[in-house]
Amino acid sequence: MPKTMFTRPADVADIEFYLNGKKHRVSDKFPATTTLNDYIREFAGLPGTKVMCKEAGCGCCAVTVTHALDGEAVETMSINSCVCPLYSVDGWQITTVEGIGSQKDGLHPIQKRLVEHNGTQCGYCSPGFVMSMYGLLHQQPKPTMSEIEGSLDGHICRCTGYRSILDAMKSFGVDSPSGGCIDIEDLNKNLCPKTGEPCQPHSDSKHCITKKASDSTNGDVKGTAPAALDLDLRESRWYRPLTLKDLGKILQQHKTHSIKMMFGNTASGIFKYEGPFEVYIDLRSVKELHVFKDNKTSLVFGAGTTLGKFRKRLIEYGEKPGFHYFPRVVRHLNVLASVLVRNAGSMAGNLMIKHTHPWFPSDLFTMLEAIGAKVDIFNSKDGKVTKHTLMEFLRNVDMKLKAITAIEVPSWSSRDHFRSFKITPRWQNAHAYINAAFKIPVDKRKIVGRPNIVVGGVSGEMVHASKTEAFLENKTLNDEVVNAALKTMFEEIQPEALEVGGSPQYRRQLSVNLLYKTLLEVYQPMKFSLQSGALSMERPLSSGLQTYQQKSDKLPVGQGMPKKTAPLQVTGEAVYTNDMTTFKDELQASFVLTTIAKGKIDKIDTSEALKIPGVIGFIGADDISPDGLNNSIPINYPLLPYKDELFVSENIDYAGKPVGLVLAETQALAEEGARAVKVTYKDVEKPIIDLKDAVERKSFHEGCSETKQRGDVEAGFKEAAYVVEGECEMGTQYHFYIE
């Protein structure tokens, strides 16, 4: 275990924070990888905050937090608790869904309105939606319906459908027919003088009664600078330095150890199995990383600036001279990750993902490189800070024992034209197939100098379309030049094949298309039919309308009414399987799954898994008794008249088939153990991926469906005046389960 550089009194609590108004003290007994979600659910006994993906992707884990990142301004916002390290919340105030309302004490207006709009079905996602809305109303007491809809981009719902949920939340909008929220100045007029909580009898569905967490009766969450932390944890050390000088000392002391530096730790949602690390450094409280400077010809953002704060600052400066391109950057930032992630994740953290994983299609890097931004980098060896272009940072700077301290964004000439794109599988909260950003300096139709054309998602090597940039340098745009530029771009773009994402052919043509849209906007062709090609589609506010007749003689049958369990779901009081209390000596389990689709099991090696402290054992096909039934399908189930082994004994017929279960003392240990099991295969065959493969290889499920034919199809074709032939193909879809 790394040796400590600081000493602390033994009788001082390691960290402390408030959870729903109650002080919690946490010692150094937890691993560094313990998340706020782990603590809330497993140790604080508040299962209303849900857990599923552990990737900051589904939103069911959302909580609202109040803290002072820079030691000055106290802020309240919602974040993903599943990626928030427990030891980073020292001094915070945290509110979960149980902390704002219950059936006993009364529902919060947000909870109440979700019930009234029939916004729950299974209800597993409901607490997360509630807490995101709660955080938004603290940040922005009078949001518009569009702002509300955008703030829920980090949430998924698998069964209710979004419309009723969005209708409930949008009813708080100032432009909503339902009335919206009351002024934040009037909130204290509606607080109970005894408890300080919202007075429920007056909290009807026409008002949003909220209270800032920083106004709570406990006064511990203030804008004062936090103390340095040095925690001796299980198999690692946790630091919270306050200055760059302190950070430099820590890095130099541990230069032979594996180190993880973090702000919001949101990158762990993408790279969840990296590590373990010997040293963890929380950079949130390093004061030099929270600067903001207006140098007139540029703006300087501290490395710890969250993506959310960056966006707000660009909105503030968007109408000032030299920063006319900011609104388009903001438009792109709106689809970078989600509000929950942007509230926690930092600019430097996003750039470091790109540095560590060059293939990653970082939207922030793509835009900043096109803009011409620069980064300041701190070297712990000599304490110096040096400035670099982003390409130098990406290609030439070894970031070992170094840290980004600031990002400088330049002002532009009025002739500089900016455009960026992000093409994704879904509108929000998704990685790009291709992203691109363009800086075109243009005087009328003449490009003045060399443009910047930056494309992400092509390969780990490509950043600039350099040949296309060189071709367009100082060119006067016309149809001939544009067509030649597109041809150059097509020849230059050579996408790598990816396991997930669009095909190389698709991503290649897509890159060319984005250049075409940009050039159409810049030079505005005379042909009216081409001008619309420059436009971007604007996503309108979602809406829906349903009409149906009620028969009075059948009431209450057919009458819309909130269901009885809805209040339990929106308050987090509904108990789901993984919310149930753990019994004494109860073990947790995690499946070991096949990584191939067709073949046979050769060997299963559990030795490394069983070495992990807390991993108890492994159960596979050989552990099922001879008189047992290794079949996951009920007997005589008519639609599935075949055997589907619970655990693979030999033959594998689909990817992700269960090989066995690892049993451990905790769920985290079970999952770690499952990843450590080594399965080798033999007789591996080419998998059947789609319907065409199945038809070619005559792989059909017999007896699962019945074909009925009426009339003579061939005769019908012969007698028809016209025959139209073709194919209709429905693409595949990746399901992101939440239940």
TrEMBL record:
Q: Which domain of life is it from?
A: Eukaryota
GO MF annotation terms: 2 iron, 2 sulfur cluster binding; FAD binding; iron ion binding; oxidoreductase activity
What keywords tag this UniProt record? 2Fe-2S, FAD, Flavoprotein, Iron, Iron-sulfur, Metal-binding, Molybdenum, Oxidoreductase
User: Which cofactors are reported in the record for this sequence?
Assistant: [2Fe-2S] cluster; FAD; Mo-molybdopterin
Keyword flag Transport: no
Q: Which InterPro entries match?
A: 2Fe-2S-bd (IPR002888), 2Fe-2S-bd_dom_sf (IPR036884), 2Fe-2S_ferredoxin-like_sf (IPR036010), 2Fe-2S_ferredoxin-type (IPR001041), Ald_Oxase/Xan_DH_a/b (IPR000674), Ald_Oxase/Xan_DH_a/b_sf (IPR036856), Ald_Oxase/xanthine_DH-like (IPR016208), AldOxase/xan_DH_Mopterin-bd_sf (IPR037165)
Q: Does the keyword Metal-binding apply?
A: yes
- Name all FAD-binding PCMH-type domain ranges: 231-414
Pfam families recorded: Ald_Xan_dh_C, CO_deh_flav_C, FAD_binding_5, Fer2, Fer2_2
- Tell me the protein's name: FAD-binding PCMH-type domain-containing protein
Species name for this entry? Elysia crispata (lettuce slug)
